[in-house]
Design goal:
Elements (H helix, E strand, L loop, with lengths): L12 H33 L18 E11 L4 E7 L5 E7 L3 E10 L7 E6 L5 E7 L2 E8 L4 E6 L1
Antiparallel strand pairs: 1-4, 1-6, 2-3, 2-5, 5-8, 6-7
Length: 156
């Protein structure tokens, strides 16, 4: 007679690993939910944040500087298509001017700011056409064009 020995059924080890992994994932989700809840709930329990009344803003005082600007065109035959940056950086244009020609204006700007000055013209030729920009008594640009019908500019 043979005695049959009872053997224990083998347990699925992969199942244990799966259940342990699931446990870790669930534990991580719960930890994340707790962290978010503990961050949000105390803030919302106090109610909406009270806004402090804004103090009226006083306009900042900006120191300004006046610049005396002179644009000049010099040549024997006048100039065509004259365009320049005038007061307030507005553009001004003249189809044709007789030379010597100049325009003088004052530009007011914030102190310490670099300003842009420019004049462009077409030399009707023959001969040379010269442009100059003088700011506060100092020549800041000086250029001469000798080719007829050529557009050129002085700029700073």
């Amino acid at each position: 007679m043979g005695v049959s020995t009872a053997t224990r059924p083998l347990r699925d080890c992969a199942g244990r690993a799966r259940s342990a992994g699931s446990f870790v994932v669930v534990l991580g989700v719960l930890a994340a939910a707790f962290a978010v809840t503990s961050y949000v709930v105390p803030r919302s329990a106090r109610g909406p944040a009270k806004e402090e009344p804004a103090a009226p803003l006083a306009p900042a005082a900006v120191r300004t500087v006046d610049h005396s600007v002179v644009y000049e065109l010099l040549g024997p035959h006048g100039a065509r298509n004259v365009t320049y940056a005038a007061a307030g950086a507005a553009l001004a244009q003249h189809a044709e001017v007789a030379t010597p020609w100049s325009v003088r204006f004052t530009r007011v700007s914030p102190a310490g700011r670099t300003e842009f000055y420019s004049i462009a013209a077409r030399n009707p030729g023959p001969g040379a056409l010269r442009c100059r920009i003088v700011v506060d008594g100092v020549v800041v640009a000086d250029k001469t064009e000798t080719e007829p019908d050529r557009l050129f500019s002085c700029a700073v």
